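# step 3/5: fold
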Amino acid sequence: MTNEEKITHIRTAAMEEARAEANAIIKQHEDALRSVFEQHQIEARRQSETRVRAESVTAKQQLNMAMSKAQLELKREMGKIQTELKTELFEEVQLKLLAFMRTEEYKEVLIRYIEKAAQFASGMAMTIYINPSDADKKTYLEERTGMTLTISKVDFIGGVRAVVPEKNVLVDYAFKGALENEYQKFRFRGGVKGE
């Protein structure tokens, strides 16, 4: 082999070795870039999923807050309407009660109340009161029951009250207290979960 052939051979071998090293470096660099890119994709996906979860949680919280606010407003409105209806209902009940108080049946109810009060007192001294609006019925009631009645200075709408001093007891068959008690106890049934 001549010198020139040797040089060519060495040059060719050196070039192949240089190319092989360059290709190895390029391959190593490509692998490193691919790995960095894959890591970047994984991190970007993770951040994206985290952001989506966080935004989902925020959206759910906002929805829950809006629903709670709407439910609270609905309950307030429902309570207001129920109070109005309850007031109207008891105004109507009071009108019907006043109409009832003009009937013969009401006189019979008063007689039963007076007799119950007398039975409770068991012969002890007592004062039986009738409502001022029933003053026109006093004589009739006294004749029917044989009891002495007193017209109250306090309006209790209707009915009878009796005081038994020995027992320190008020026998209360007054309509006013009964109406107030029913008004306080009255609740609308139905609506949301039977409220």
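# step 4/5: annotate
The mean pLDDT is 93.
# step 5/5: archive (pending)
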